[in-house]
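Structure ticket #2291
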Amino acid sequence: MPANVVDAAAMERLILSSPFHAWLGLRLVELGTDHIAIALPWREELIADPTARYTHGGILATLIDLAADYAVAAKLGRGVPTIDMRVDYHKAALPGEELIGRGRVIKLGRTVATAEATVSKTDGTLIASGRGVYLTSAG
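Resolution: structure written out below.
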């Protein structure tokens, strides 16, 4: 696997350059040579059901997509469009739990890349997992 072309400071700037990502309150936790970890703090706006109070599945899917995407971006120096993605939900994410998205590149090609990601609580409890395919060619 090629080395990262961005450092942690540049990656955090890249992530937060999106107004949506800034609104979510994302924070880069770790950028390694073969993985990335991104934190999503708990917010009331993330609730899907006011009675059950669990986090909306779309938020979990977003964190899967972002962790996988930015694992690829670390190798290319830019975000990449998602071509395809799947998510498996394993447990409900409840209020107050900071969520950590961890991503890693499986295959980095000239046209497409495949990356996988997990979402877990800070104690390591698995909430969701998934895989995405990303367009790596510039045009």
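Closing remark: The longest helix spans residues 57-76.
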